[in-house]
Amino acid sequence: MSCCRVKLVRWGRTKSGTVRWRCPKCGKTKIRQKTSLPTGLLTDYLLDGNTCSQLAEKYFVSSKTIQRKINRILDTKAPNLPELEIKSPCWLITDASHFKRWGCLFITRAVGLNQPLAVSFHEKENYESALQHLTPLSNLPVVGYTLDGRRGLVLAYGQIFPNAKFQRCLVHVQLKVQTLLTCRPKLKAGYELLKLTRRFKRIKSTLSAFLWNEDFDRWQRTNWQLLHERSYKGRSWWYTHQNLRHAWKHILNAQDHLFVFLTFKGSVSHTNHLEGTFGQRKPALVKHRGLSRKRIANALLWTYYLKQKNP
Prior knowledge:
The chain is 42% helix and 17% strand. By secondary structure, the protein is α+β, with helices and mostly antiparallel strands. Among the domains are: 86-169 and 270-311, Ribonuclease H-like superfamily/Ribonuclease H (Nucleotidyltransferase, domain 5, 2-Layer Sandwich); 177-265, no CATH class. A 5-stranded mixed sheet has the order 6-5-4-7-8, sandwiched between helices. Strands 1-2-3 form a 3-stranded antiparallel sheet, with no helix packed on it. β9 and β10 (236-239) form a beta hairpin. α6 (170-181) runs antiparallel to α10. The longest helix has 17 residues, at 206-222.
Protein backbone atom coordinates (compact mmCIF):
# COMPACT_ATOMS: atom_id res chain seq x y z
CA MET A 1 0.00 0.00 0.00
CA SER A 2 1.17 3.51 -0.77
CA CYS A 3 0.28 6.84 0.78
CA CYS A 4 -2.56 7.03 -1.80
CA ARG A 5 -4.07 3.85 -0.31
CA VAL A 6 -3.95 1.95 -3.60
CA LYS A 7 -2.21 -1.27 -4.51
CA LEU A 8 1.30 -0.81 -5.94
CA VAL A 9 2.38 -2.45 -9.18
CA ARG A 10 5.82 -3.77 -10.11
CA TRP A 11 7.94 -1.23 -11.99
CA GLY A 12 11.22 -2.84 -12.94
CA ARG A 13 14.28 -3.05 -10.70
CA THR A 14 16.86 -0.71 -9.25
CA LYS A 15 20.57 -0.84 -10.20
CA SER A 16 21.20 -3.14 -7.27
CA GLY A 17 18.50 -5.56 -8.49
CA THR A 18 15.83 -4.69 -5.90
CA VAL A 19 12.25 -4.76 -7.17
CA ARG A 20 10.82 -1.29 -7.68
CA TRP A 21 7.11 -0.55 -7.04
CA ARG A 22 5.03 2.29 -8.52
CA CYS A 23 1.81 3.95 -7.39
CA PRO A 24 -0.61 4.03 -10.40
CA LYS A 25 -2.38 7.05 -8.91
CA CYS A 26 0.46 9.53 -8.22
CA GLY A 27 3.28 7.86 -10.16
CA LYS A 28 5.74 7.75 -7.26
CA THR A 29 8.11 4.78 -7.08
CA LYS A 30 9.58 3.08 -4.00
CA ILE A 31 11.19 -0.12 -2.86
CA ARG A 32 9.69 -2.38 -0.23
CA GLN A 33 11.36 -2.12 3.17
CA LYS A 34 10.86 -4.12 6.31
CA THR A 35 8.46 -2.44 8.68
CA SER A 36 9.54 -2.40 12.32
CA LEU A 37 6.52 -3.25 14.44
CA PRO A 38 5.98 -1.38 17.72
CA THR A 39 6.84 -2.93 21.08
CA GLY A 40 3.25 -2.58 22.23
CA LEU A 41 1.98 -5.04 19.63
CA LEU A 42 1.31 -7.74 22.24
CA THR A 43 -0.61 -5.24 24.38
CA ASP A 44 -2.83 -4.39 21.40
CA TYR A 45 -3.34 -8.09 20.75
CA LEU A 46 -4.06 -9.37 24.29
CA LEU A 47 -5.36 -6.44 26.32
CA ASP A 48 -7.15 -4.40 23.65
CA GLY A 49 -8.43 -7.52 21.87
CA ASN A 50 -7.36 -6.53 18.35
CA THR A 51 -7.12 -9.39 15.86
CA CYS A 52 -4.25 -9.94 13.42
CA SER A 53 -6.33 -8.48 10.57
CA GLN A 54 -7.10 -5.33 12.54
CA LEU A 55 -3.46 -4.88 13.52
CA ALA A 56 -2.38 -5.43 9.91
CA GLU A 57 -4.61 -2.58 8.77
CA LYS A 58 -3.34 -0.40 11.60
CA TYR A 59 0.37 -0.90 10.83
CA PHE A 60 0.08 -1.38 7.03
CA VAL A 61 1.60 -4.86 6.96
CA SER A 62 0.35 -8.32 6.13
CA SER A 63 -1.72 -10.19 8.73
CA LYS A 64 0.74 -13.08 8.33
CA THR A 65 3.53 -10.76 9.47
CA ILE A 66 1.56 -9.86 12.59
CA GLN A 67 0.76 -13.50 13.24
CA ARG A 68 4.40 -14.57 12.95
CA LYS A 69 5.48 -11.81 15.33
CA ILE A 70 2.80 -12.71 17.87
CA ASN A 71 3.57 -16.43 17.66
CA ARG A 72 7.27 -15.84 18.30
CA ILE A 73 6.39 -14.00 21.50
CA LEU A 74 3.77 -16.52 22.65
CA ASP A 75 6.23 -19.38 22.17
CA THR A 76 8.14 -17.99 25.17
CA LYS A 77 6.93 -17.75 28.75
CA ALA A 78 6.21 -14.37 30.28
CA PRO A 79 8.61 -13.03 32.92
CA ASN A 80 7.68 -13.46 36.57
CA LEU A 81 5.30 -10.91 38.02
CA PRO A 82 6.98 -7.98 39.77
CA GLU A 83 7.22 -8.60 43.51
CA LEU A 84 4.84 -6.53 45.64
CA GLU A 85 5.98 -5.42 49.08
CA ILE A 86 3.72 -6.81 51.80
CA LYS A 87 4.98 -6.10 55.32
CA SER A 88 1.87 -6.52 57.48
CA PRO A 89 0.06 -9.88 57.86
CA CYS A 90 -2.10 -10.56 54.82
CA TRP A 91 -5.05 -12.74 53.86
CA LEU A 92 -4.70 -14.64 50.58
CA ILE A 93 -7.30 -15.81 48.07
CA THR A 94 -6.46 -18.58 45.61
CA ASP A 95 -8.63 -20.10 42.93
CA ALA A 96 -8.18 -22.09 39.74
CA SER A 97 -9.99 -21.97 36.41
CA HIS A 98 -10.08 -25.05 34.20
CA PHE A 99 -9.76 -25.22 30.41
CA LYS A 100 -11.77 -28.37 29.76
CA ARG A 101 -9.40 -31.21 30.68
CA TRP A 102 -6.03 -30.03 29.41
CA GLY A 103 -5.07 -27.09 31.61
CA CYS A 104 -5.65 -25.14 34.79
CA LEU A 105 -4.85 -21.49 35.60
CA PHE A 106 -3.96 -20.67 39.22
CA ILE A 107 -4.23 -17.12 40.57
CA THR A 108 -3.41 -15.88 44.07
CA ARG A 109 -4.24 -12.41 45.30
CA ALA A 110 -3.94 -10.68 48.67
CA VAL A 111 -6.98 -8.92 50.10
CA GLY A 112 -6.67 -5.19 49.50
CA LEU A 113 -4.43 -5.49 46.42
CA ASN A 114 -5.76 -5.27 42.88
CA GLN A 115 -2.77 -6.98 41.26
CA PRO A 116 -2.22 -10.75 41.67
CA LEU A 117 0.77 -12.02 43.61
CA ALA A 118 1.21 -15.21 41.58
CA VAL A 119 -0.15 -16.57 38.30
CA SER A 120 0.77 -19.98 36.89
CA PHE A 121 -0.57 -22.50 34.39
CA HIS A 122 -0.53 -26.25 35.04
CA GLU A 123 -1.90 -29.40 33.45
CA LYS A 124 -4.07 -30.37 36.45
CA GLU A 125 -5.33 -28.97 39.73
CA ASN A 126 -3.66 -31.23 42.27
CA TYR A 127 -1.34 -31.04 45.26
CA GLU A 128 1.89 -30.93 43.21
CA SER A 129 0.76 -28.09 40.95
CA ALA A 130 -0.70 -26.12 43.89
CA LEU A 131 2.56 -26.52 45.81
CA GLN A 132 4.56 -25.32 42.82
CA HIS A 133 2.27 -22.31 42.48
CA LEU A 134 2.47 -21.30 46.16
CA THR A 135 6.18 -21.92 46.81
CA PRO A 136 7.31 -18.42 45.58
CA LEU A 137 4.96 -16.90 48.21
CA SER A 138 6.34 -18.86 51.15
CA ASN A 139 8.08 -15.78 52.64
CA LEU A 140 4.85 -13.76 52.95
CA PRO A 141 3.37 -13.07 56.42
CA VAL A 142 0.10 -14.96 55.80
CA VAL A 143 -2.46 -15.05 58.59
CA GLY A 144 -5.16 -16.89 56.64
CA TYR A 145 -6.53 -17.88 53.25
CA THR A 146 -9.83 -18.45 51.47
CA LEU A 147 -10.25 -21.41 49.12
CA ASP A 148 -13.02 -23.27 47.33
CA GLY A 149 -12.18 -26.46 49.25
CA ARG A 150 -10.26 -28.44 46.61
CA ARG A 151 -8.14 -30.94 48.50
CA GLY A 152 -4.90 -30.27 46.59
CA LEU A 153 -4.95 -26.54 47.38
CA VAL A 154 -5.87 -27.11 51.02
CA LEU A 155 -3.00 -29.56 51.52
CA ALA A 156 -0.51 -27.27 49.75
CA TYR A 157 -1.50 -24.30 51.92
CA GLY A 158 -1.23 -26.44 55.04
CA GLN A 159 2.28 -27.47 53.99
CA ILE A 160 3.58 -23.94 53.24
CA PHE A 161 1.57 -21.94 55.80
CA PRO A 162 0.94 -24.37 58.69
CA ASN A 163 -0.09 -21.63 61.16
CA ALA A 164 -2.51 -19.82 58.82
CA LYS A 165 -6.29 -20.19 59.19
CA PHE A 166 -8.46 -21.71 56.47
CA GLN A 167 -11.75 -20.13 55.36
CA ARG A 168 -14.04 -22.08 53.06
CA CYS A 169 -15.61 -20.07 50.24
CA LEU A 170 -19.28 -19.70 51.24
CA VAL A 171 -20.39 -19.01 47.68
CA HIS A 172 -18.96 -22.32 46.47
CA VAL A 173 -20.69 -24.19 49.31
CA GLN A 174 -24.01 -22.54 48.54
CA LEU A 175 -23.79 -23.22 44.80
CA LYS A 176 -22.81 -26.86 45.38
CA VAL A 177 -25.84 -27.41 47.62
CA GLN A 178 -28.09 -25.65 45.12
CA THR A 179 -26.75 -27.87 42.32
CA LEU A 180 -27.53 -31.02 44.32
CA LEU A 181 -30.97 -29.94 45.54
CA THR A 182 -32.02 -27.69 42.60
CA CYS A 183 -33.68 -24.32 43.20
CA ARG A 184 -37.00 -26.01 44.00
CA PRO A 185 -36.38 -29.12 46.13
CA LYS A 186 -39.24 -31.61 46.31
CA LEU A 187 -38.61 -32.57 49.93
CA LYS A 188 -39.29 -30.20 52.81
CA ALA A 189 -35.92 -31.11 54.32
CA GLY A 190 -34.18 -30.11 51.08
CA TYR A 191 -36.00 -26.79 50.99
CA GLU A 192 -35.00 -26.05 54.59
CA LEU A 193 -31.36 -26.97 53.94
CA LEU A 194 -31.23 -24.77 50.84
CA LYS A 195 -32.75 -21.94 52.87
CA LEU A 196 -30.02 -22.36 55.49
CA THR A 197 -27.25 -21.95 52.90
CA ARG A 198 -28.89 -18.81 51.53
CA ARG A 199 -28.41 -17.21 54.94
CA PHE A 200 -24.61 -17.25 54.51
CA LYS A 201 -24.46 -13.78 52.97
CA ARG A 202 -26.33 -12.28 55.95
CA ILE A 203 -23.93 -13.63 58.58
CA LYS A 204 -21.78 -10.72 59.75
CA SER A 205 -21.17 -11.49 63.44
CA THR A 206 -20.24 -14.40 65.69
CA LEU A 207 -23.74 -14.34 67.19
CA SER A 208 -25.43 -14.86 63.83
CA ALA A 209 -22.92 -17.63 63.06
CA PHE A 210 -23.74 -19.31 66.40
CA LEU A 211 -27.47 -19.15 65.64
CA TRP A 212 -26.88 -20.63 62.19
CA ASN A 213 -24.95 -23.57 63.66
CA GLU A 214 -27.77 -24.18 66.13
CA ASP A 215 -30.34 -24.19 63.32
CA PHE A 216 -28.19 -26.60 61.29
CA ASP A 217 -27.81 -28.98 64.25
CA ARG A 218 -31.57 -28.85 64.81
CA TRP A 219 -32.15 -29.66 61.14
CA GLN A 220 -29.83 -32.68 61.42
CA ARG A 221 -31.68 -34.04 64.47
CA THR A 222 -35.06 -33.53 62.84
CA ASN A 223 -34.11 -35.24 59.55
CA TRP A 224 -31.71 -37.87 60.88
CA GLN A 225 -33.96 -40.80 59.98
CA LEU A 226 -34.67 -39.35 56.49
CA LEU A 227 -30.95 -38.89 55.80
CA HIS A 228 -30.25 -42.55 56.65
CA GLU A 229 -33.27 -44.05 54.90
CA ARG A 230 -32.30 -46.91 52.58
CA SER A 231 -33.78 -48.55 49.49
CA TYR A 232 -33.27 -52.26 48.77
CA LYS A 233 -33.26 -54.39 45.66
CA GLY A 234 -32.29 -57.97 46.35
CA ARG A 235 -29.04 -57.91 48.29
CA SER A 236 -28.14 -54.41 47.10
CA TRP A 237 -29.07 -51.21 48.91
CA TRP A 238 -28.48 -47.47 48.60
CA TYR A 239 -29.48 -44.30 50.40
CA THR A 240 -32.91 -43.26 49.17
CA HIS A 241 -32.27 -39.51 49.17
CA GLN A 242 -28.72 -39.44 47.83
CA ASN A 243 -28.59 -35.81 46.68
CA LEU A 244 -29.98 -34.58 50.00
CA ARG A 245 -27.43 -36.68 51.82
CA HIS A 246 -24.56 -35.40 49.62
CA ALA A 247 -25.61 -31.79 50.26
CA TRP A 248 -25.76 -32.44 54.00
CA LYS A 249 -22.33 -34.09 54.01
CA HIS A 250 -20.89 -31.22 51.96
CA ILE A 251 -21.96 -28.68 54.60
CA LEU A 252 -21.00 -30.95 57.49
CA ASN A 253 -17.44 -31.43 56.20
CA ALA A 254 -17.01 -27.66 55.74
CA GLN A 255 -18.71 -26.60 58.99
CA ASP A 256 -15.49 -25.98 60.95
CA HIS A 257 -14.22 -23.55 58.27
CA LEU A 258 -17.40 -21.66 57.37
CA PHE A 259 -17.11 -18.64 59.66
CA VAL A 260 -13.39 -18.28 60.34
CA PHE A 261 -13.42 -14.89 58.59
CA LEU A 262 -15.46 -13.35 61.44
CA THR A 263 -12.50 -13.45 63.85
CA PHE A 264 -9.88 -11.93 61.54
CA LYS A 265 -9.84 -8.34 60.35
CA GLY A 266 -9.26 -7.93 56.61
CA SER A 267 -10.40 -11.45 55.72
CA VAL A 268 -13.03 -12.46 53.16
CA SER A 269 -15.54 -15.30 52.98
CA HIS A 270 -15.54 -15.85 49.22
CA THR A 271 -13.32 -15.95 46.13
CA ASN A 272 -15.53 -13.74 43.95
CA HIS A 273 -12.63 -11.34 43.40
CA LEU A 274 -10.90 -14.00 41.30
CA GLU A 275 -14.05 -15.27 39.56
CA GLY A 276 -14.43 -11.84 37.97
CA THR A 277 -10.84 -12.03 36.74
CA PHE A 278 -11.48 -15.40 35.09
CA GLY A 279 -14.66 -14.05 33.54
CA GLN A 280 -12.71 -11.25 31.86
CA ARG A 281 -9.81 -13.28 30.50
CA LYS A 282 -11.50 -16.39 29.13
CA PRO A 283 -13.90 -14.62 26.72
CA ALA A 284 -10.97 -12.49 25.46
CA LEU A 285 -9.33 -15.63 24.05
CA VAL A 286 -12.34 -16.29 21.82
CA LYS A 287 -11.14 -13.50 19.51
CA HIS A 288 -7.87 -15.39 19.01
CA ARG A 289 -9.21 -18.82 18.09
CA GLY A 290 -6.70 -21.21 16.60
CA LEU A 291 -3.90 -20.75 19.13
CA SER A 292 -2.24 -23.93 20.33
CA ARG A 293 -2.61 -24.99 23.96
CA LYS A 294 0.92 -23.90 24.76
CA ARG A 295 0.34 -20.45 23.28
CA ILE A 296 -2.99 -20.07 25.11
CA ALA A 297 -1.22 -20.80 28.41
CA ASN A 298 1.56 -18.33 27.60
CA ALA A 299 -0.96 -15.74 26.40
CA LEU A 300 -2.69 -15.82 29.80
CA LEU A 301 0.61 -15.39 31.63
CA TRP A 302 1.64 -12.54 29.31
CA THR A 303 -1.73 -10.87 29.89
CA TYR A 304 -1.27 -10.64 33.65
CA TYR A 305 2.34 -9.55 33.24
CA LEU A 306 1.35 -6.72 30.87
CA LYS A 307 -1.56 -5.63 33.08
CA GLN A 308 0.71 -5.39 36.12
CA LYS A 309 3.50 -3.67 34.18
CA ASN A 310 1.12 -1.14 32.59
CA PRO A 311 -1.76 -0.68 35.07
